[in-house]
Amino acid sequence: GPVAETIERFLEAVERLENVTQTTWRGYVETALGYDDNINVGATRQTIAIPVFGGLPFMLSRSSRASDAWFGNLGAGLSVRSPLNRDVALVGGLSGNFRRHSGGSEITRFDNATADANVGLVMRSDKSVYSLNAQLNHYQLDDDAYRTAKGLSGQWQYDLDMRNQFSVYAQYSDLHYQTQRFRDADRWVLGAAYAHAFQGGQVVYGGGYLVKERAEKSSARALGFDGYGLRFGGQMNFSARTVLFASASAEKRKHRGSDLWFLKKRDDTQYDVILGLTYTPIRHWQITPKITWSDNDSNIDLHAYQRKTASLNLRYDF
């Protein structure tokens, strides 16, 4: 998800660029088993009052309420970095992930798959690193195409010294929903982050961002929102083979139009926490137990939910 991608990006940001004299390839394969108590990001409440019907209570369908299940993941990725000269490199990558749930048809309908591709340029100038990437993401739900996102992202990283780094980034995405065209939207993100590496190998980072999403159809104005968020996290070496990591984030979103059913503008605040550790028994192999917690506090009960997951991941890097 976005939080995991942010953690990975900021932790990598404190590392020096690799030798740019030769093309380098990196890849991974991974699998995971876990438990998710809200696979469909369903509402916490089973009954809600709908103002457009005079506040009468309605029982939510099973697909709208939180459903729990065991799940299995299978993922793989490949990235390349090819120098054009000593200061500029071409970068690209492909990755995919399949997630399957254990249960009947009401559960397996939330099986999903994602595919990501990116290509871009990285340029280094003294203490600065500039990057520009074109990105494509495809999401399938229950074996059917659900959403495609394509866009551009840019980032400026500045090394204050060997242990401190500042970065600014911007991203634009064109969101297209294959079966729900009214949800098509444009999304912008602008943010900044700071990372510090301690002498013992510990890393801490923090940052903030602004986010804006606009529905392409005027009739879906209520789906668009303005928001902002904060993220903090870090990692520390528990032993020579074990690294502990943690992150916390909060995002505030205010929607622009009134919901037709609930007769008011939606206002959400989402909190996310991730805790885990990575154990490396032998070179190239990693075992990662992880727990996550999410809480979306909304002034519309239909969108208020909590979600907890626990998983065990096995990964091989090459």
Keywords, separated by commas or semicolons:
two-stranded antiparallel ribbon, mainly beta, disordered N terminus, 318 residues
Any overview of this molecule?
It is built from two helices and 16 strands. Mean pLDDT is 91; it is low at 1-7 and 13-18. It has helices at residues 2-13, 105-108; strands at 24-36, 47-50, 56-59, 69-83, 88-101, 112-125, 128-141, 144-159, 164-177, 185-197, 203-215, 225-237, 242-258, 265-279, 285-298, 305-317. The protein is 5% helix and 65% strand. Strands 1-4-5-6-7-8-9-10-11-12-13-14-15-16 form a 14-stranded antiparallel β-barrel. It has a two-stranded antiparallel ribbon with strand order 2-3. With 318 residues, it is mainly beta. The radius of gyration is 21 Å and the shape is globular.
Report the count of strand segments: 16
Task: Enumerate the spans where pLDDT stays under 50 for 5 or more consecutive residues.
Answer: 1-7, 13-18
| Percent of residues in helices | under 10%
Order of helices and strands: HEEEEEHEEEEEEEEEEE
- Structural classification: mainly beta
Number of helices: 2
Which term fits the overall shape? Answer: globular
N- to C-terminal distance: 23 Å
Overall mean pLDDT: 91
Percent in strands = over 45%
Rg from alpha-carbon coordinates: 21 Å
Q: Give the spatial strand order of the biggest sheet.
A: 1-4-5-6-7-8-9-10-11-12-13-14-15-16
Largest sheet: 14 strands, antiparallel, barrel
Can you give me a brief rundown of this structure?
With 318 residues, the protein is mostly beta strands.
